[in-house]
Specification:
The protein is mainly α and 246 residues long. The protein is 77% helix and 0% strand. The chain has a domain of 166 residues.
Length: 246
């Protein structure tokens, strides 16, 4: 089995050029799906018999909550690649994912609080799911702050990678918190192993939005990584060639 495709990811120029194409494709996919999914969910999905119209925030909250966790899992993969294969692009990935992941986590917490007020009668409760999501936000902030506090880029990357791997323990706590503890937070709206509890007219636009938000996340991460690659490789001859061609 050839691992050439894998080692190509270690080339800043190879990644920069291909990520530009992926960024363009993911951006258009995100735009189309989010417009369709959001309009469908907000304007045409039926009213929930218990929560009324307030449940419609699910079309924002669920996708960004998924992504908040997915971004951290992706950082953990980058951390392993950094330690095992010493790829500097893996450190670039951690740097980009941390910022995007924090944005999605904050958006998840805020949208959840807005949804919680009409559902639970309060914006916040210290239950297991909400508390573990708040810890996830602190982990993202800690990783960003740790990088800013260490002057040497290589040392900063290794320190951040260690913190990322330590924080992975929080991900299963987030996922299984509603099953391990008695919490106010409802179970997952969509599960791969079970039939959705919602009718198709509700969960199909939700699925469209989930894919759309993932595409938007790819767009943001690729854009951030490409900018970071240019900054790190600014003295390389290929950067001058690319910038001059642009």
């Amino acid at each position: 089995m050839s691992w050439r495709w894998f080692h190509q990811w270690g080339s800043p120029r190879w990644f920069y050029e291909r990520a530009g194409r992926w960024q363009w494709v993911s951006g258009w996919i995100a735009l189309i799906l989010l417009v369709v999914g959001t309009l469908w969910g907000l304007g045409f999905a039926p009213v929930d018999y218990q929560q009324g119209h307030s449940y419609r925030i699910i079309y924002l909250h669920v996708p960004v909550a998924f992504l908040a966790q997915a971004m951290y899992a992706a950082m953990a993969v980058c951390a392993v690649v950094l330690f095992v294969w010493k790829m500097k692009l893996a450190d670039v990935g951690i740097q980009a994912l941390a910022v995007v992941g924090l944005a999605f986590t904050v958006l998840s917490l805020v949208s959840g609080a807005i949804w919680g007020k009409p559902t639970w009668g309060t914006y916040w409760v210290w239950d297991a799911r909400l508390t573990s999501m708040l810890i996830l936000a602190f982990l993202y902030m800690g990783i960003i702050g740790l990088r800013a506090a260490i002057a040497d880029p290589d040392q900063a990357g290794k320190a951040c990678a260690i913190l990322v791997l330590v924080g992975v323990v929080n991900l299963p706590i987030i996922k299984y918190s509603v099953e391990w503890w008695n919490t106010l937070h409802q179970p997952a709206s969509l599960k791969l192993t079970e039939k959705p509890a919602m009718p198709a007219s509700m969960w199909v636009p939700l699925l469209v939005n989930i894919v759309g938000y993932y595409a938007a996340a790819f767009y943001l991460v690729f854009a951030s990584m490409r900018a970071l690659v240019l900054e790190r490789e600014r003295r390389a001859s290929w950067v001058k060639e690319v910038v001059g061609r642009a």
